[in-house]
Amino acid sequence: MLKNTFCHIPGVSCRLEEQLWTAGFRCWDAFQQQPVPLFTPARNQAATECLVESRYHLECSNPLYFCKLLPVRLHWRLFPSFRYTVAYLDIETTGLSRSGNIITTIALYDGRNIRHYVHGKNLEAFKEDIQRYQLLVTYNGKGFDVPFIESCLKISMPQAHIDLMHLLRSLGFKGGLKGCEKQLGLERGGLEGVDGYFAVLLWRDYQDNGNVKALETLLAYNIEDVVNLETLMIAAYNLKLEETPFSDIHTLPIPVRPEIPFTADSATIERLRMCYS
């Protein structure tokens, strides 16, 4: 979809982009091979130079270039071109405020491998690992996860970023991450009903009582979030494609779910529900 995009060119609006598509200029190649200039000579030259630069940044795996030029509502178009360098990211914390709270766990999934990080164990390793990726996909990560990580771990995360909360809302899906999952047909099995508040209880149980099953349940919950982010990203991408002339050629298949390395402990979940209900 990125090579069908023109509205990152200065002066090209989404409406003009649609007019270009209708006129038969459906990709960068078609524009650059135009037999008769579409714009004034100066504007045509500027557009051509922008597309040459765009090809360079695409080949150099630099999604941030496009992220800065495209309207936020169109950042979904970055996904297929940079899918191989994406990190699906989610954190769990002891509270919403960055003041006085900590990150308990971080889950990271890149479509191939699952990584997890635990406070007091290997949380610092995240600093180096996240540098491998050029594109982040989160749910409300721009408002919560990334600022929390940057504050807690004292790092900068300048990567291009697709926040699914805003993307899914533009498609009519609301109700938080879990609500969007349900509306798109995703089930959580033994983790049904577990939420961010319950994740805090799991961490407390692990810290106060040494219950390793509570930590494993927390990690299963955290990892479930990032694995589902991939499915939500692709579902949202395909739905957005339907608003363009390209859904017949760019639609992506829903991926096979990876095996999650932790299992939620039903006894721990039930005990905590009884204690805090």
Automatic annotation (TrEMBL):
Organism: Geotalea uraniireducens (strain Rf4) (Geobacter uraniireducens)
Pfam families: RNase_H_2
Domain (YprB ribonuclease H-like) ranges: 87-236
Descriptive protein name: Exonuclease-like protein
GO MF term set: exonuclease activity; nucleic acid binding
Alphabetical UniProt keywords: Exonuclease, Hydrolase, Nuclease
The keyword Hydrolase belongs to this UniProt entry's keyword annotation: yes
